[in-house]
Amino acid sequence: MINEAVKTEVQLQFSANSKDIWNSIQRQVKRAAIAQTMHECRNNQSAAALALGINRASLRTYIGQAFTESEMANMGIKS
C-alpha cells in the first residue's frame, strides 16, 4: 500500500520535473504519521510523541511545519 503511494508520488513529481522528490515524500509521510498518531492518541501530544519515538518538542516542531493553524486548532494545539 505504501509502496504504491510512493511509486505514484515519485512518478508525479518526476513528470513535473521536480528536483525535491525526497523532501516532498518525507513531508507527506511525516504529516500522515503525525495526523493518524495524534488521532489515535486523542490529540495527546505526549502520548503521540512517545508512540512515534520522538520527543514532544520535536513533535511540536513537525506539527508547526506540516499543518495549517486551523488544522492545528482541530488537534487542540495552539500556534
Summarize the structure.
The protein is mainly alpha-helical. It contains five helices and no strands.
Protein model, in words:
The structure is a single chain. With 79 residues, this protein is an all-alpha fold. Helix content is 75%, strand content 0%. It has 5 helices and no strands. Helix 2 crosses helix 3. It is elongated. The N and C termini lie far apart (33 Å).
List keywords for this structure.
single chain, about 80 residues, mainly alpha, 5 helices
Secondary structure layout:
Elements: H1 2-15, H2 21-40, H3 45-52, H4 56-66, H5 69-74
Helix pairs in contact: 2-3, 2-4, 3-4
Poorly predicted runs are none
Based on CA atoms alone, the radius of gyration comes out at: 14 Å
Name the helix and strand elements from N-terminus to C-terminus, one letter apiece: HHHHH
Inertia-based shape: elongated
Structural class: mainly alpha
Our count of helices gives 5
Beta-strand percentage range: under 5%
Give a quick account of the main beta sheet: strands, pairing sense, barrel closure: none
Give the averaged pLDDT, no decimals: 93
* Record field, number of beta strands: 0
Compute the separation of the termini in Å.
33 Å
Give helix % range. Answer: over 70%
